[in-house]
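Closing statement on the flavin-adenine dinucleotide sub-project.
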Amino acid sequence: MSKYFKAKTVDNISLNKHFRLLNLSPLSDIDIPQPGQFYMLQTGDTCDPLLKRPFSIFRHEENSLSFLYRIRGKGTLSLSRLKSGDIINAIGPLGNSYPVPDGDFIALAGGIGIASLLPLMRKFKERAYLFYGARSKEELVMMDEAKAVSKESFITTDDGSEGKKGLITDSLMKFFNSLPITHHPLPLYACGPTPMLRELYRIIKSKIQNPKSQIIECYVSMEEYMACGVGVCLGCVVKVRSQEPVDSSQKWIYKRVCKEGPVFDIKDIIWE
Ligand SMILES: Cc1cc2nc3c(=O)[nH]c(=O)nc-3n(C[C@H](O)[C@H](O)[C@H](O)COP(=O)(O)OP(=O)(O)OC[C@H]3O[C@@H](n4cnc5c(N)ncnc54)[C@H](O)[C@@H]3O)c2cc1C
Ligand code: FES
């Protein structure tokens, strides 16, 4: 099936001043998306912005695709102006998806990272320990649904307006420290700003190298800037440890987030 299709805007609901939920109805048959995959969406009906923007699949139902998005700049502002009946071009589903968790798992979401993780939590209901952090209460979206599909949830905001005041990675660290050493290892899935993912790596570095630790697998969805979304422009590369070094001096290679990602094993990424 072609990944290039046109879709009709069903509605484009404002959740608050920052966030919207866009519901599209594809005008042709499409492949079924998996949690973690994304689409490149045309954001307006002019050449400005020219490039499509990447958005994680938030929900897929028969003949309907939903995207949860935060208004940031030109593209997302233009997307927010789409009205019912407007037709846009889309490409997807693109990239890889989250590996299927075997039992319970941890979902770590920073801000709009929840858009990528909620489909996984919805699919494996009541199996996620959710750690969800944002700057303030109004930047926590889809909280009710996220809590409802979780086994347990831990919420933080930078300003303390909802949940505990502080960083979500601090809550995660406390959780790890409270687990008995005999606890069955939990795979961890994370999506959010790069500083959060970098801090996550710092916290769990020793744990993922220790076979007796409470987590052994950790997957992160990288939100790099993208131009083409289909592996052609090399605009989205990240440095990844090379399994087979090209020569003894180069222990890393570039991988494309849009093609080989967006989901990577955290220990493969070079966090500089
Ligand atoms: C695989 C993937 C999935 C994504 N899924 C979602 C999603 O489900 N919902 C959602 O709201 N956003 C998502 N994003 C981010 C979204 O693509 C960007 O917010 C969007 O492209 C911004 O376009 P713009 O024209 O509005 O902003 P621009 O004018 O391009 O930029 C405005 C501001 O946003 C920042 N910015 C732009 N792109 C990114 C990015 N990729 N990561 C971090 N900061 C960025 C810029 O630094 C700038 O400060 C995803 C990104 C990727 C790569
Ligand atoms: S966005 Fe062009 S190669 Fe990834």
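The first strand starts at residue 4 and ends at 14. With this model delivered, the sub-project is considered complete and its resources will be redirected to Aim 3.
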